[in-house]
Design a protein that fits this description.
Elements: H1 8-28, H2 43-56, E1 68-71, E2 77-80, E3 86-94, E4 99-102, H3 104-108, E5 111-116, E6 128-135, H4 137-140, E7 146-149, H5 150-156, E8 162-167
Parallel strand pairs: 3-5
Antiparallel strand pairs: 1-2, 2-3, 4-7, 5-6, 6-8
């Protein structure tokens, strides 16, 4: 499910309300505070942010512009280059807990994009995310699957990890293509 650009502010507001509620419960019941966690970053949200970033040319600009983008079809996002080549893009999103679970589909993608959204629960009017662009993960990660922390990923990754800082919300909506 793609969250349209005009609905992203509502998602961010709802996410922040949930985090505030968790904070209130933790304060009210400190003896069981650790039982309540912040909500996970929804796959719909992280995929939508990456999708719109691809449309705008903020992500993988050296591979685009893309002639077609769609969710699903063998990957979280399928991106078609002008030469007809399809890129399989898998997306992971995390808040302030910097870990993901990596499966076969993630390792075999052309790109694994890890969206770090720690600022999402802050009061910043225009939070940003850090997108880690992991090209051909199967060539750079050990053949272990499962849970990966950011530090583990950095230790196991062979080569450089491209990183971009991108807006989650902007004063002006990101125009669609």
């Amino acid at each position: 499910m793609l969250i349209e650009l005009e609905n992203l502010p509502q998602f961010v507001a709802a996410y922040r309300e949930l985090c505030t509620y968790v904070d209130l419960i933790r304060e009210k019941y400190p003896f069981i505070a650790t039982c309540f966690q912040y909500p996970k970053i929804s796959q719909f949200f992280s995929e939508s942010i990456v999708f719109h970033g691809l449309q705008k040319g903020l992500i993988l600009s050296d591979e685009g512009p893309f002639t077609e983008l769609h969710l699903g079809g063998g990957a979280d996002i399928m991106a078609t280059k002008p030469n007809g080549q399809n890129l399989r893009i898998e997306v992971k999103g995390t808040g302030d807990k910097e870990f993901i679970t990596v499966g076969d589909k993630d390792r075999e993608a052309d790109y694994l994009i890890w969206l770090l959204c720690a600022e999402l629960k802050s009061d910043l009017p225009y939070p940003i995310a850090t997108a880690l662009l992991l090209k051909r993960p199967i060539e750079h990660l050990s053949d272990t699957k499962g849970r990966k922390t950011l530090n583990t990923l950095r230790k196991q990754w062979v080569g450089t990890i491209d990183k971009i800082i991108m807006p989650i919300l902007t004063p002006e909506p990101i125009p669609t293509v």
